[in-house]
Fold this protein.
Amino acid sequence: MSQLSPNLHRTLVAVAEAALPAGKFIPGAGEQTAYKVEQFASNLPGAAQTGLAGLLRGLDAQAWLGERKAFTRVAPERRLAILQQWRHGDVFRRLMLRALVSPLKIAHFDDPALYKQLGCVYDAEKVKAETKPAYMRDRVHAKLDGDLAVESDVVVIGTGAGGAVVGRELAEAGLAVVFVEEGRYHDRSQFTGRAFEMHQRLYRRGGSTFSVGNVAIPIPLGMSVGGTTTINSGTCYRTPDRILDEWATELGLADLTPDKMGGYFDRVEHVLQVEAARAELLGGNGRVIARGCDALGFTQHKPLRRNAPACDGQGVCCFGCPTDAKRSTNVSYIPIALRAGAELFTGAKVTRIIVEGGRARGVVAVTADGKTLTVRARAVVVACGAILTPLLLGAQQLGSQSGQLGKNLSIHPATGAIAEFDEEIMPWKGIPQGYAIEDLHDEGILFEGAMVPLEMTMSMTQLIGPELIRLAESFNHISSFGFMIEDTSRGKVTELRGQPLIQYWLTEQDVSHIKRGFDVLAQIYFAAGARRVHSPINGFDIIESPDDLAALRRATIKPWDLDLSAYHPLGTARMGSDPHSSVVGSDHQVHDTPGLYVVDGAAVPTSLGVNPQITIMALATRAAEKIAATLG
C-alpha cells in the first residue's frame, strides 16, 4: 500500500519514469520502483517521511510555475527537463533532486533480472547459519518476558569497535560484563548482500543520517550487534605516528605515544587477523588503478590491510559479510566476550545513566515492546559512537563542564570518481575497498578503492535520464575509486526532536584538498586508459580528457558544489589532559563523573586521516586495562 497521498504517489511515479527511462535492455522505472521507495520511507522517522512529501510538492510547484499544470500532466520529455533544471540549479534544488532520485535509483537497479543481463552476481553466496555454542545461545537476550533488573561490574552501551573490545577485555579479566545494544544480533545467513534490503536492516535510519551546514554530507551509521564494524569495508590502518605525537605534545596525552601504543595495536591486529588483501581479489578496479599509478610514477600504492583473512571477494562488505570472513566485532570480540561470561541484551535502547552521589552506577534501557531493563554496575562504559554518545550524555548534563561535549566533530569527508573504460572491469568481482594510494597521505589525502554494487554506483552520479541508463548498461566497463581527507573542518552534534542534528562546515582548505584529490584521481584514471571520468563536482559532471582538468584547476569551487559522504565521525567527547578543553581524561573517564567512561570514536581527540577502526579498538584495549585496575 502506498505511504503517500494518491496525488503525491502519482508524482513519485512520474519522477521515476522521467529519471529512469527504459534503455536497450534496462526496463523503465514506474509503479514498483516508487512503491519500494515508499515502503523504505515508511520505516524512517516522521521528519524524513514529511521531507519526501515536501520534495514532491516542491517539484509539483515547479511544474505549475513553468508549465501551468501538475508534474504528472506534463509531457514526459518536459518532466525530464524540469528535473534537469533542478540538477543544474542552485544548491538547494540540487540537494532536493539528490534526496528524491537517489533512493529511486537504488530501488530500481536492485533487480535480479537486470543483474543477470549484465552478468553480475545478484545474491550473495548462500551460507548456512552457524550453529551457535551454548554460551552464545544462553547469554544473548533478544527479548524480555517482563521488566528486568541485573547487576554487574561493568555495563557497556554499544557493541561496535569501542564497546565490544573493552567488554571483551574486561570479561577476560574476570569482571562481570553486561552489554546493552539497541540493534539486533543478525546471523550471517541474514546478510543477503543486497544494498536496499541491508540498509533497512543494518543501518540506523536506513542509512539516511546526514550533516547540514555549507554542504550536506551523508554519514551512514550501523545499528546492530557489531555496530558500524558490521557494515564497514574492513580496512585496518594504525593511527599514524605523527598523530599520536601531536596528541602527546598538544593535548598532554603522553601515554599515547607510538612506542606505548604499539602493544595495543599488536593485540587488536592479532584478534582481527589483519593482513594485506590478496592480489587475486583486487579485481579490475585494483588492476587499472595500479596501472595508472605506475604510468604517473607513483610509488606508494598497494593492497590495503584488512580484517578478512578468509575473504572470497564477493564485494558486499558494507552490507554484512555473508561468510563471516570479515572479522567485525559481531564475529570476533563479542563471541569471545560471551565465552568469557559476558551477557548481551539486544534491542534495548539506553534512556538514562544512573548517577548516585555524583558517580555512575548503571543504566536504564527500554526495549521496542516497552519492557524496562535496569543494569546496576560499578562502572558504565558509553560506546554509542561519536554521533549518539554526546546526545546520551548531554541529556543528563554529564560531561558538560568543559563546554566541549558534542563539539570538535571531524568526519573525514570523502568522495571519488567513476571512470568508463573500453576494457572489461567486471567491478562486482573482488574486494570493494582493497587497494590504496598513499603518495599524497602527508598532504592529508588518502585514496582507497570504493567499488559498490550497481544500484549504489548509480546513486554516486548525478546523471538522470538516458545518460544514466547508458552508464548503467555499461556497468561491466566501469571502475570507481575514492579518497578521503584529514579534515581541518569541524562540526557539532545536538538534538532536534529526538534525532541527532549534525552541523558541519567545510573549510576552504578542505575544499582545496578535495579538489586536488579528484584532480589526481582523474589523472590516474586517464593514465590507465579511461575514456571519461565522472566527477563529484558541480559544473564538471563529466571530464572527457586530461585537458578538461585545466578548467577545473582554474575554477573556484565552493563547499556546496561538492557531492560528499563521510564514514568516520570522531571527537565529540574528546580525550585530553585538561578538563577545561576535553570531556574525558587519558583513562577515558568523564572528567566530571567518576565511574563513567567513553570508549568509542567520540573520545578520539582529532581527525586521523585514516580509517579509525583500529585506533578505536587499540584505545579500547588500553581503556579496559585502566578500568580493570580501578575496579580491582
Remarks:
- The chain has a mean pLDDT of 94.
- The chain has 19 helices and 23 strands.
- Residues 134-209+225-234+237-271+316-407+571-631 form a domain with the FAD/NAD(P)-binding domain fold (CATH 3.50.50.60).
- The first strand starts at residue 140 and ends at 141.
